Amino acid sequence: MKKIINIIFPLMIGALIFLNIFLFCSSLKLSDEINNYENKISALHRGNLVLEKKVSDLSSLKFAEKMAPFLGFTKKNAPTYLEKLNVALKY
Amino acid sequence: MKIKLLFVLFLCLYLVIIGRLFFIQILFPFKPDKDLYLKTVKLSPERGKIYDINKNPLVLNQNSYLLYLEPKKITDKLKLTHLLSEKLEMEEASLEAKIDQTKDYQIITNGLSDDKKNEIEKINLPGVGFEYQMRRLYPEASLSAHLIGFVGKDDNGEDIGYFGLEGYYDKDLKGMPGFLESERDIIGRPIYIGTQNRVKAEDGRDLVLTIDKTVQEIVKRKLLTGIEKYQVKQGCVIVADPYTMAIIALSCLPDYDEEKYYQFSENYFKNSAISSAYEPGSIFKPLIMAAAINEKKVKPDTQMNEDGPVTIDDYTIKTWNDKYEGKISMTRILEKSSNVGMVWVGEKLGNSKIYSYLEKYGFGNLTGIDLQGEAEAYLKPKNAWYPIDYSTVTFGQGIAITPIQMIRAFSSLINGGYLLKPYVVSKIVSETKESIIKPKIEKQVISKETSDIIKQMLVSTIENAEAVWDKPKGYKIGGKTGTAQIAISGHYDPSKTNASFIGFVPADKPKFITLVILEEPKSSPWGSETAAPLFFEIAKELIVYYNISPTQ
Predict the structure, then answer these.
(1) Which residues are paired to B435 by β-bridges?
(2) Which of B298, B312, B334, B353 could form a disulfide with B461 if both were Cys (CB 3.0 to 4.6 A apart)?
């Protein structure tokens, strides 16, 4: 009986110490992961905002106005209303 | 012997632990600094975004950084002020004077962009730090400044919306902050087996407007040209759907830059379309005419004798050009905008009915538009009205109303008689649901038949008007010009006027109604020579944009 206890007791102590160290290391690893994901989410969100700005800049009327001359839309291409001629003739 | 020694050792250890616990808990209780291990962080929600009717962004959020200094950590103050002032475009001397090396923390500036932050980080200056913030981004710059409003700070330094939509929908846009309570180790990492409470922040709701960015751009561009051309003090244009009173575009100039709102005085923030009362002048005439037709007091072809000025008490009322045509119909009264004719119509309608119709059209009450800063234009109580007031109100003088009240009342003339609540937001979108805002009919002011009659009279008013306009050909357009003298110190100054025009296209089933108001035009005081041409300029572009086919 005494022999069995002498074997089991140190084994249990050893197992408990190992488990504690394992849990401690796991918690450290998980903490790092939590931290890592928090930072990644935040970076993604910021990246999203930057992309959103780029998309909105490209779809803005300011950008369209800037691009119009390069695409051949110039003041010369503005429609001429024919009824203006009538007004000019009549008055 | 060995066991006894081990026992004594353990006993001593236990005694030390018990002694230490007694010391910590009983003799000198230790109050731990909660922040050392239990970190509570406020999670700021993202402010809601604002889109136009086609989901084009009008307001977004952007990364922004607050730059702070920890003066005690600064090693070379001269180098820091020199480099930082260069990057921040600040005066070196003022930056140097700002730095107080006895302090632990000092805010230098905020609103820095990602690029600027990266630039400063690259220099690697000790004692310089950044705090993340968010700021509003306006992809279309100040296209809709008065509509949107701006985000400033309250007394506690928290973001708060002022004016327009930012002010009116501040609670919806702001969202609910969350918090994170988390046990952290000595280097700030969360302890997995410790407390980890996270209440997620609820982001602000997004707003989808009834505003069409393209129409807004057309309106603002044309208004800007008009203001320069007619040398106007300030001007406003409102475009709305007369059947729903959804505002399609609203622009008042001069306006301000929402991003640099702090560089403008408060006068610029006021949205004249909803906050300023003015005397409408002749664009008011159709409202009284419709009331008289609705009460069956007159018909479009009823004749009256316009044989000269009329005298009410001590006042003489003339036509705008002091010319009189003798027998004229009700339609002709509107066509030639006869004040004398309108006084006759007012007498037919009766004082009591005039007042009751003014109330029915919603004057004296807020329209309830969802923009912050709407002014309640005052309608005098009935017992304070003199006979002359009942006469002048028939042609839009002696009554003060806001432009939004005017366009709402006028819409009721052409939409079958319904007075509707004007609105700017069509949808409020949160993470979980989407609320659609529907048009709201408040009351029926005139009958459908009256509405059809007055619509035809307004078409005739444009077709047979005394002024000649460059109108889009093939389209039936209804409308009315207005020129109201401005009252200064108790009398009207004939040289200072509010010129206006209200019109709708196409007349049979209007797609849009537009009100143009120009304050104190210098090129000509008349609405027919300033506001009306501007209306037709805008209408031409909107006809193309909405692809409205000609009917004539």
Answers:
(1) B428
(2) B334
Range of the domain at A63: 2-90
Q: How far is it, in rounded angstroms, from Cα B419 to Cα B423?
A: 13
Q: Which residues does chain A have within 8 Å of residue B471's beta carbon, measured at their own beta carbons?
A: 83
**CA gap B77, A41 in Å, rounded:** 36
pLDDT digits (tens, 9 = 90+) for B399-436: 999 999 999 999 999 999 999 999 999 999 998 899 99
The answer to whether A56 contacts B192, with C-beta atoms less than 8 Å apart, is no
Q: What's the confidence (pLDDT) of residue A90?
A: 43
**Ranges in chain B, pLDDT < 70:** 30-38, 185-195, 490
- The answer to whether the beta carbons of residues B271 and B237 sit under 8 Å apart is no
Q: What is the 3-state secondary structure (H, E, C) of B185-202?
A: CCCCCECCCCCEEEECCE
- Which among B39, B112, B192 is the top mutation candidate for probing chain A, defined by the most A β-carbons within 10 Å of its own β-carbon? B192
C-alpha neighbours within 13 Å on the C-beta side of residue B513: 29
* Triad B214, B215, B217: Cα angle to 5°: 65
| Cα end-to-end span (Å), chain A | 126
Query: What pLDDT score was predicted for residue B544?
Result: 92
Cα nearest neighbour of B114 on chain A:
A50
- Label the pairing between strands B206-209 and B50-51: parallel
**Cβ-based contacts under 8 A for chains A and B:** 69
Spell out which residues of chain A touch residue B143, defining contact as CB-CB under 8 Å: 61
Residue burial B273-305, b: 16+ Cβ < 10 Å; e: rest: bbbbbbbbbbbbbbbbbbbbbbbebbebebebe
Beta strand segments in B34-149, E:
38-43, 50-51, 57-69, 106-112, 128-137
Of B343, B289, B325, B321, the closest CA to residue B458 belongs to: B289
CA B370 from centroid of its chain's CA atoms: 8
Residue among B213, B204, B68 at smallest CA distance from B136: B204
Contact between B517 and B531 under an 8 Å Cβ cutoff? The reply is yes
Number of residues that this document lists for chain A: 91
Q: Does A32 touch chain B (CB under 8 A)?
A: yes
Choice between B207 and A42, residue whose per-residue pLDDT is larger: B207
How distant is the Cα of A1 from the closest Cα of chain B, in angstroms? Answer: 19
A60: helix, coil or strand? coil
Show residues of chain A in contact with B60, CB under 8 Å. 49, 52-53, 56
**What number of other Cβ atoms are within 10 A of residue B6's Cβ?**
10
Rounded to the nearest 10 degrees, how much is the dihedral formed by the CA atoms of A78, A80, A81, A84? 130
Q: Mapping DSSP to helix (H, G, I), strand (E, B) and coil, where does residue B500 land? A: strand
Say what the ipTM of the complex is: 0.72
- pLDDT for B360 equals 95
Q: How far apart are the first and last CA of chain B?
A: 121
The pTM of the whole model exceeds 0.90? no
Question: For chain A, how many structural domains are there in total?
Answer: 1
Q: Is B430 helix (H, G, I), strand (E, B) or coil?
A: coil
Chain B residues within an 8 Å CB radius of A58: none
Please check whether residue A87 touches B, CB under 8 A: yes
Architecture, CATH, for domain B213-546: 3-Layer(aba) Sandwich (3.40)
CB count within 10 Å of CB A18 equals 10
HSE of B347, CA atoms in CB hemisphere, 13 A:
11
Question: How many CB atoms are closer than 10 A to CB B427?
Answer: 17
Q: CB distance from A11 to chain B under 8 Å?
A: no
